[in-house]
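Q: Here's a chain of 328 amino acids. Please give me its 3D structure as tokens.
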Amino acid sequence: MIEKKIVQSKEISRRTFCRTAAAAITVLHLAGPSGRASQSKGKVKFFKNLSPGHLGVRANQRQALEYALKYGFEGINPNPGEFQNKSASKINEWVELMKEKGIRYGAGGLPVDFRRDEERFKNDLAKLPGQAELLKQLGVRRVATWIMPGHRELTYLQQFKLLTRRFRQVAKVLKDNDIRLGLEFVGPRTSRSRSRFAFISTHIEMMELVEAIGTGNVGLLLDSWHWYTSHGTIDELLELSNNDVVHVHVNDAPAGIDVDKQVDNRRALPATTGVIDLKGFINALVEIGYDGPVECEPFNRELRQMEPDAAVKKTSESLNRLWDMIEV
């Protein structure tokens, strides 16, 4: 009697397994390529981040949170100014709300003007410890800024030495608060041609500056559009590590314009024009184990003229198409 029950149980288990397996195969088949791709994204550590300002959308932190929840983003950019005069308990309430909703922070802007005279830099640097402490309270672990690819007065070496010194001072304060700094290079030849003295315009050169700073918490803000206009390659991206990349922007480029004639602030949402090899770009990020925010910065006039909801929705859809390109 016991033996019969065991045999019957095994037969039921086999039948259950077969039905379950068949159902899974059917679902996967009906889902098509997009469905199958979603089954293979276990190696993806980065997340979709919303920066409303990049889209021409005005939103405070609560509104940004609502947009993120509504349209499937996993992170938002911080606006520490909103919390400047808030009590520790109010800040903690906000941080707990973010956790409850499953939304995290992307990268904030660097609140130090390093481009101007020494007095301005020192004044901003003196304020940085308090600002960094607030960012830490909010749970912000990344900030970023950009560096123009030339200067009217300083030679390459002069500017390299100046920025090495200034960013080293900045990075040490940030490091004390567990914050990383991302530096963005500007790639297009049309931007480089405006200055008398050329400066960094590729991620390879920017990594040389990162190494010279030497604090261990500085890396790249890697933008697909600047990578494309700097003639970057996938093989070069694969030489990077997660520690090298702090923040990522994804954009496409207008069609019908030669790469060396592309102009900054004229871009497109990712996976819309097919000009940039975004499939190679996004899969390279997966391969190097990048684990930070990925956001759009399209500088697109049509997008900026849309109603806020429509602009955020369209941006989310473009990121979904980009995620569908992930193969690993």
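Q: Can you summarize the key feature?
A: The two ends are 50 Å apart (CA to CA).
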